[in-house]
Write a structure and sequence with these properties.
seven-stranded mixed β-sheet; alpha/beta; eight-stranded mixed β-sheet; 17 strands; Rossmann fold; about 425 residues
Length: about 425
C-alpha cells in the first residue's frame, strides 16, 4: 500500500500581491526587501512561473552578482515553484533557460560578473520584460544597475524590474540613496515603485515552529541582531565600527599645518586615494581630494593638479610602491616621500587616539568608509578602504608644527557641526 503524501499548500501574504500584476501601465520597479524567513524570494519565483502563462509571452531574466551562487538558490527556487504548482509537464530546461513549452515564455539565469571579477557580456537582454535581481545589495553601484535597467525597454508589454535583498546599513548603499530616505521609502524619488517589506511574521503559516521559536527568542536575547538581521530594517549606522566619534564639517575656512596622505590602487576595485590633512591646535581636519580606481600615473598627476595640491606639498605615500612615488616626483611633486606604515593594527590604533574632523559632504569615499569600516564576524580587519589608508599614512608619518599664533580665532570652530547618527 502506497504511503499517502500530504500535498504542500503555500499561503502567500497579501503583501506580495503587487508581484502578480500583469498589465501595460503597471509600476516599473519593485523593492522586495526584508528579513530571514519572510518568503520573499520564493514568492517571486511563484509569480515568475505564473507569469510565463501570460498572453504577453514574457522573457524573464534572473540576475545575481555571480552565476555560481544562482545555481544553488535562485534556479532551485524556480524549479521548486514549478513542482509546487504541479506544472512540471509544461516546462523544459536547457542550458540555464527554463521554457514554458505551452506559451514559449522563458525564465533565464545569468551572473553580472563572470569568474575572475570581470563584467559578463549580457548580450541577451533584448526582449526581456521582467528583470529580477537577487541579492541586489551585492551590486557595486547604481551605474552597474543602470546598465541592465536601461536595457529593459521592449514596447507593447508590461515591464518590471524587481530587486530582492536584505537591507543593511544605509551608509554607502546605492539602493538606499535612490529609493529611501533615513530608512523609509522615498516615493518622490521614484514614483513608479512598489515597496514590499516583509518579515517572518508575514510568513508564519509556511514556517517550521522551531524556527519561529528561535526568532522570537532572539527578540528577547539579542534585540539588535533581531532587528537588524531577522526583521532586516535599514540601519543608519554600521555596528562595531573601527572609527567613531569624529566631527564632520562641510568646509574648513582656516589655515594650519597642511600635508597629504596617499594610497595607490593595486588593480581591480582598489583605488588611488589622496587626502588633505590640516592640523590646527591638536585637531586633524581631513578632506578627500580624490579616490578613483584604475588610475594611470598621468591621470593621477592630472587629479593632483585639479585638486590644487602644490608641487612643493609634503605627500606621504604608500611605501610599497616606490616606483610610483618616483614617477610622481618626476611629474613635479618634489616633496612626495614614503609613508611610515608599520603594522596596520598599530597604525589604526594611533589614528583612533587622534582628534579628527572630516571635511566635505557625506557622499565622499572617506565619509562612507569612516561610517562602515568594521571588523568581520571573526573579529579580523577586512581590507582597509584606500582613503582611510591614505589618511593613516599621512597622520602617522608627520609630527605637526604648532600654530604660529595660539590665540588665533578660528572661524571654522564656529561652524555648525553636523554630527553623526
Amino acid at each position: 500500500m502506497k504511503e499517502k503524501v500530504e500535498k504542500r499548500v503555500l499561503k502567500i501574504s497579501p503583501l506580495f500581491e503587487p508581484l502578480f500584476l500583469d498589465y501595460i501601465d503597471q509600476p516599473r520597479y519593485y523593492q522586495v526587501y526584508g528579513g530571514r524567513g519572510s518568503g520573499k524570494s520564493f514568492t517571486v519565483s511563484i509569480s515568475s512561473v505564473l507569469k510565463t502563462y501570460s498572453k504577453f509571452k514574457h522573457k524573464i531574466l534572473y540576475l545575481r552578482q555571480t552565476m555560481s551562487s544562482s545555481e544553488d538558490s535562485t534556479i532551485a527556487d524556480v524549479r521548486a515553484a514549478i513542482v509546487l504548482l504541479g506544472k512540471q509537464k509544461d516546462f523544459r530546461e536547457s542550458k540555464g533557460v527554463i521554457t514554458n513549452i505551452k506559451t514559449g515564455a522563458t525564465i533565464s539565469f545569468k551572473g553580472i560578473r563572470s569568474t575572475g571579477g570581470q563584467t559578463a557580456k549580457l548580450k541577451s537582454l533584448s526582449g526581456i520584460t521582467t528583470l529580477i535581481i537577487e541579492e541586489a545589495e551585492e551590486l557595486e553601484s547604481f551605474d552597474e544597475f543602470s546598465k541592465v535597467d536601461e536595457s529593459i525597454r521592449i514596447a507593447g508589454k508590461p515591464l518590471a524590474v524587481i530587486l530582492i535583498y536584505n537591507p543593511g546599513t544605509s551608509v554607502g548603499s546605492w539602493i538606499h540613496k535612490e529609493w529611501f530616505i533615513e530608512g523609509f521609502p522615498n516615493p518622490e524619488r521614484h514614483s513608479d515603485t512598489m515597496y514590499i517589506h516583509s518579515t517572518y511574521l508575514d510568513n508564519l503559516e509556511n514556517m517550521n515552529p522551531s524556527v519561529i521559536k528561535r526568532y522570537r527568542d532572539l527578540e528577547r536575547t539579542n534585540p539588535v541582531y533581531y532587528r537588524n538581521t531577522i526583521l532586516a530594517e535599514w540601519t543608519l549606522e554600521a555596528s562595531g565600527r573601527i572609527y567613531a566619534g569624529w566631527n564632520h564639517w562641510p568646509d574648513l575656512m582656516e589655515d594650519g599645518d597642511v600635508w597629504y596622505g596617499m594610497d595607490f590602487g593595486y588593480g581591480g576595485n582598489d583605488k588611488t586615494s589622496c587626502v588633505k590633512i590640516t592640523w590646527i591646535d591638536g585637531v586633524y581636519y581631513v578632506e578627500e581630494m580624490f579616490s578613483e580606481a584604475k588610475l594611470s600615473i598621468r591621470a593621477t598627476l592630472t587629479l593632483l593638479r585639479k585638486a590644487g595640491v602644490p608641487f612643493n606639498a609634503k605627500i606621504y605615500a604608500d611605501s610599497a610602491m616606490p616606483l610610483l612615488i618616483s614617477e610622481i616626483r618626476m611629474g613635479g611633486h618634489s616633496s612626495i616621500r614614503k609613508a611610515t606604515k608599520g603594522n596596520v593594527e598599530a597604525g589604526i590604533k594611533k589614528v583612533q587616539n587622534k582628534d579628527i574632523t572630516l571635511i566635505g559632504d557625506d557622499t565622499t569615499d572617506l565619509y562612507v568608509a569612516y561610517m562602515t569600516f568594521r571588523r568581520d564576524k571573526k573579529g579580523k580587519l577586512p581590507h582597509e578602504p584606500d582613503c582611510l589608508a591614505a589618511m593613516r599614512y599621512g597622520i602617522n608619518s608627520k609630527t605637526p608644527k604648532k600654530n604660529p599664533d595660539k590665540n588665533q580665532k578660528r572661524s571654522a570652530r564656529r561652524h555648525r557641526q553636523k554630527g553623526f547618527i
